[in-house]
Task: structure prediction
Amino acid sequence: MLGPVWASIYDYPAIFRAVHMEEPDEIAEEVAFLKKVWARHLKRRVRRVIDVACGDSPHGHLLARDGIEVVGVDRSAVMIAAGQTKAGGANGIKLYRRRIENFRIPERDCDAALIMSETFPVITANASLVTHFKSVARVMRSGGLYCIDVDRHDGVFTGRRRELWRRRQVRVGTTRIEVQEYKCPMAWHAGGWIYELRCVIHFADRVVRTRDLVPVRYTLPDHLEFAARASGAFELIACYVDLSFRMPLAKCDRRWLGVLRRS
Result:
């Protein structure tokens, strides 16, 4: 007997960011900090950027308003379509449906790259990390910067069975979403866990249930440095904590940003 057919929260661009607890001004703050990082570490002006795992590319749309050309890649057809609709045919944004682990696009000569929303740790295999870095490097100019946003990982989940992490409710306009989050074990040697996100979305005319399984690799600055060097395409030049140049790594509260330079 077949089990239930689950939708994905990523099929609902209008609500998935609220489910992921994104603050109202968070994207604008991230973009402002990225610009400061570029000014600090890149001597030339940033004219073209690749937004990796872009979703509907909210960062890209803000950058495009400043005259920066944006190229985005994401595996979700729904998110790409939403981003294209938001762009409204603007010449400054091009989005491609691609797997971030290994991709090719026609664009070249990007001055900077970014992968935000703590997405980088979903790349769990060493070989995929290498092909990912090489894919990004192919579209970048020598000396360009790749900024990688990573959630603070307090420790590897070592439980042997699925555990409820938290329950909460979110509202987007008149739509109510019940959220359940679980941590699920991976093999002991995998160095990570699986984040399971279940939602019950109460639209005015229907109820939709979603379930997403997201692998999370335990990721520290040393891991990022090693993987970047192994690719032969990047080197780690800086780490910044919680959108600050002054906060020490040891006092990281939420997330950190690794800055790689294209060799």
The longest strand covers residues 140-151.
